[in-house]
Amino acid sequence: WGTREELNQHFGIGCEHVKNALKLIQSNIRWPVYDRNPLSKWSHGHLVLLGDAAHPMLQYAGQGAAQAL
């Protein structure tokens, strides 16, 4: 969970519509996004990386499971 202050710090510099929308939000969830260097290969012998183990996805979109399929 992020705080209202964090939300205003990141998005409060926007236009008046954004500032007004921020006032209406009662709670918010902060989703940290991380990045890493790409792997040169996703398999080695009998081991294969699938889903978000091979390529990190956004955690709230369910993309990791979809990529594994």
TrEMBL record:
Coiled-coil segments on the chain, per record: none
InterPro entries, alphabetized: FAD-dep_Monooxygenase_BioMet (IPR050493), FAD/NAD-bd_sf (IPR036188)
Listed cofactors: FAD
Membrane-traversing stretches: none
Keyword Flavoprotein applies: yes
The protein's name: Uncharacterized protein
Lineage: Eukaryota, Metazoa, Spiralia, Gnathifera, Rotifera
Keywords carried by this UniProt record: FAD, Flavoprotein, Monooxygenase, Oxidoreductase
Domain of life: Eukaryota
Any one GO molecular function term: monooxygenase activity
